[in-house]
Write a structure and sequence with these properties.
Blueprint lengths: L1 H34 L18 H5 L37 E4 L2 E7 L12
Antiparallel strand pairs: 1-2
Length: about 120
């Protein structure tokens, strides 16, 4: 009987602890993403993504899709550019625009990376 009460208390403690850890993790992630301002130039535009950026290199980003490493990124197909990607947040006529893969940076409309997803 006493052992049953202890195990019930232990389970309750573990449930509450798990929920508290999850809530803290979510809250801290939300706070850091909101607290980090986007670096903008004097005109209010985001900086252009550098091909040497570590994330850009890992995803094979190139400002010119024709220069994508076709041997390393076999999923590349001719005609795929940031302009035709679902993750690209630009408007028609933009030369550079934000991309959800590279927060706080702009990608070239003629660019490409391995996260490319056909625009719906």
């Amino acid at each position: 009987m006493k052992q049953d009460r202890i195990s019930i208390r232990r389970r309750g403690f573990l449930k509450i602890s798990s929920l508290a850890v999850a809530a803290f993790t979510i809250a801290s992630r939300a706070g850091t993403s909101l607290a980090q301002p986007k670096a903008q130039d004097k005109k209010g535009a985001l900086p252009q993504l550098d091909e040497k950026d570590p994330t850009a290199q890992n995803l094979g980003y190139k400002h010119d899709a024709a220069k994508a490493d076709k041997a390393k990124f076999k999923q590349y197909a001719a005609g795929q550019t940031c302009a035709g990607c679902q993750l690209f947040q630009g408007k028609p006529g933009d030369a550079w625009a934000p991309c959800t893969i590279f927060p706080g940076k702009q990608v070239n409309v003629k660019g490409w990376c391995s996260a490319w997803v056909k625009k719906a």
